[in-house]
Amino acid sequence: MSRIAHQVSSAVAFGDFVAEAAAAGRLVVQPRMGFSDPGQMRSGLIATKLADATTVGTITLDSYTRVGADGEARRALAEGVALNGYPIVAHEPSTTAAVVEGLRGRGFPVQIRHGSAHPEPIVAALLGAGFTATEGGPVSYCLPYSRLPLRDSVDNWSRSCELLAAVPDAHLETFGGCMMGQLCPPSLLVAISVLEGIFFRRHGLRSISLSYAQQTDAGQDEDAMRALRRLGREFLDGVQWHVVVYAYMGVYPRTPKGALSLLAGAARLAARTGGARLIVKTVAESSRIPTIAENVAALEHAARAAERAGTAPAGDDDSAVYQEARAIVDAVLDLDPDLGRGLVRAFELGYLDVPYCLHPDNAGRTRGHVDGAGRLAWSRIGALPIGHLVTPPRAEGMTSATLLTALTHVERTFDDERLERTAQMTLTTTTAGTTTAPPSPREHLTSPVTRTVMRVQDKALTAAREYLRDNGFTELLPAVIGPVTDPGGRGSKQVDVDYYGHRYKLMTSAILYKQASLLGFDKMFSIAPNVRLEPPETANTSRHLAEFHQLDVEIAGAKRDDALKVVEELVAAMVDRVVTEMPAELEELGRDKDAFTDLLSGAFGRVTHGAAVADLRGLGHAQSADAEIDWEGEAILSRKSSRPFFITDYPKGSRGFYDREDPAEPGVLRNFDLIAPEGFGELCSGSEREFEYARIVARMRETGENPAKYGWYLQMVREGIPASAGFGIGVQRFVRYLCGLDAVWQASAYPKIPGVVSW
Q1: Which GO terms describe its molecular function (predicted)?
Q2: pLDDT tens digits, residue range 21-68?
Q3: Do 239 and 363 have their domain in common?
Q4: Do the beta carbons of residue 117 and residue 151 sit within 8 Å?
């Protein structure tokens, strides 16, 4: 997919943006993201905008702001305490304006999400900052989150709706399709969502979204979505409206695979039933606040699932869900011409009564349960006006044990025994991404996806060997162990082995051996295994393995530009061979061969490290000027580009001692990285090499390396080695990009994820 293809238009209102995307057949995906630090909030919005999906931005507010404790929010900001969202009232309007400067209004509307029963200060602040889209409702933002009397919440929301209605293009989303998030049969969720939508309309809103939260059964959810859309047509005629789906709001799966599977189900639900927008959840939902990268990974995962969803077969528009919801809506509307008073009266009479809700204004006489088919059903209906439609089964009272079993039904369904066995670890996270755990050896090796990916890898490596041999390169079998290896970086560790009483290393990189090989060959290459014990937190970057292979190339007498030319031609040869000879395999993997048009049409882009740093800082990402581009920054730059590009001229100190310092520009290295487009990140690193003994020893000491460790290498350098340039292409990373895979382990026949002991 191309981000350009996903742009709906420039400068459109929230409701219009979603409508245009829906008309084009694209599901809008949206995170639940909020950070108190303005820089981090801006980075989150940038990453959302650059995600490979049709997205809208979110600024989710913090808990202090939700309850009106703005003084506490300001105190936390002054003390540098991180909050669980963005305190829009506590921040100066100019600060909030800076967060979205250059982002909002160019095909990227932003919604403020909060959770407040007294939203007037929030609405005033968001309107003052130029935002026109928010969400909530007098019922849905009172009963689950507040002890404020419902009557007061209705009054507060009446005034807030009027503030919003005075602004052109204002959009308001009801949260009523969620409520407690679990064990509430869908008919009541649908009814409350519709009632709040009608409330918004009667208070002057002309752009509205109705919400529905994914529940326990896909078929029942489809019935609920059809019911909600039918009721929308019946009660919201004449205003702009759409349906937004929430990924499951109850107890979330703990395994990455379970979480992603549940999210994909929510995306399919929205895509198959006419939902226009999806609020995603991430693999971290069961344990903590997700990172930016985890949010982006969830957005992209949901977008891909929606694209493959198809359309649901025609269902029953007059389903039980519709009949119950319609009966509830009609009964509430008949209570009072003023719907606000009608909502209050409905809860007093028990016409609206949310199971297991402890708010003082909720009667608490209804109960729901998960039936034997996995659907939500009524155990007790209290005074709900659906007695002519529902006869609850005679059931025993709910105990704490049976309640817990019901609440964890979805989690257990998606974290089944197989998923637990293949993911028996808690995957920690970084700000760079997320991945699922590999399946068992049999499942992985017999998977049609694995077999197809391995055939693509074989074809790409065959093309690489042919190109290199045709251009005078000799393939050498690489060293696997040695007394010393590449010093590594970014926290990775080396593996020691006992070699006849001596401590040797498994190769983390063939760089030193490549330079040694030039004593016998002017041009050499190898396909080398590498083992790097990356930090466990890199398990979730989607791009790290503890064991991987590298296509290494070294050229005697070459300069950096010579190496860059070989990289361009080599990569193009590998891609062209696969695109030309394996179109069916790419189609099977869902990879659009048009994604490689720019790659095959000419030279790659080129940008200096300094320019990349300036670009990232301009986008609000706090990239150090003295270090490698960090993983999140790399992903941001990668998503911005439609073709591969080189980052050159890293600062001295950011890379190993073997990267040559530019004689004409001290402090700058003659090196490069190749960055793939579409968010796939780094594919290749290379440089001109230091080859003079005194300079290498000096550089070793500057980087904290002990020259005594490198005895055999330095003896060889002292005796003379050729000047050279070279590079290494990560085979699995390259194949991941080529095949459009979610994670790099999918490009390995025998995947080993950092921190995870596996086969």
Answers
A1: asparagine-tRNA ligase activity; ATP binding; cobalamin binding; methylaspartate mutase activity
A2: 999 999 999 999 999 999 889 989 999 998 989 999 999 999 999 999
A3: no
A4: no
